[in-house]
Design a protein that fits this description.
252 residues; 9 helices; mainly alpha
């Protein structure tokens, strides 16, 4: 493992963690009915386009190319998607009724924290793949773009974690703290994924595909459903084409 590769991964993971923290801090300025729907749609659309392209071109296709058989890639992709479907179902069941007690609040915090795991894992694995190829720009630039896309969408996500806690009686400071803590799993699991690749090279195709499957479900469930305005759909296309272009043009 090179120090440069480690610091790139650490920087990307700290960035997405910082964006979640900023999102949580934004409840300090939040006032009811002040949400700009157009801006929200643009942010989610742009991030969703980047994440969808990343799941395909930065994770799934490299997973297939790094092994002689596609079985590990297919299995990892399917398992990754199933894991997040379970997590998302847990969240839907929690929010089905109005939150009334501390037990449900704990489950909200748990489900939203679990939601951040595949995002951190995706970034860590992407930088691990870039390091395995000598930090070649064809792999490094998509990794940086992936971290940027996840980081941008983590801002409204941080708010989505802290705001329900605050509206149900938590002080702003405690809601912010819990929002920040929920984002801490991203650098933790991202670094675990990064370091795991060094120890278990044969697991790379499966883990890359696992992250791709989880990220694709995250994108469809969490982001695309928020893209309601025309500008959001346009920026979805822009984000996808930007990420796809970086991958295709820089491929060697």
């Amino acid at each position: 493992m090179t120090l440069n590769g480690f610091f790139y991964a650490l920087g990307g993971l700290l960035f997405i963690f910082a964006m979640t923290s900023i999102g949580s801090l934004s409840i300090l300025f939040y006032k009811k009915n002040q949400m700009n729907e157009k801006l929200r749609s643009i942010i989610y659309g742009f991030s969703g386009g980047i994440m969808l392209a990343s799941s395909i071109f930065s994770l799934l296709l490299p997973s297939i190319k790094t092994h002689d058989t596609i079985f590990l890639s297919f299995t990892g992709f399917f398992v990754g998607g199933l894991i997040f479907i379970f997590v998302d179902r847990l969240k839907i069941n929690i929010f089905k009724d109005k939150i009334k007690d501390s037990k449900k609040l704990s489950l909200v915090f748990l489900s939203m924290t679990l939601h951040n795991i595949p995002e951190g894992l995706s970034v860590g694995l992407s930088f691990a793949l870039a390091m395995k190829h000598g930090l070649d720009y064809a792999y490094l630039i998509p990794s940086l773009s992936l971290a940027f896309g996840i980081g941008i969408q983590n801002i409204p996500e941080g708010l989505a974690i802290a705001l329900p806690l605050h509206t149900q009686g938590f002080s702003k400071s405690k809601a912010i703290f819990l929002g920040v803590v929920s984002g801490a799993v991203e650098p933790i699991f991202g670094l675990c994924g990064f370091l795991l690749i060094e120890a278990l090279t044969m697991a790379l195709p499966f883990l890359l595909a696992l992250a791709a499957g989880a990220m694709m479900i995250v994108t469809f469930f969490e982001l695309f459903s928020e893209v309601q305005k025309e500008w959001g759909k346009i920026f979805l296309l822009i984000g996808f084409l930007l990420m796809m272009g970086l991958d295709v043009l820089l491929e060697v």
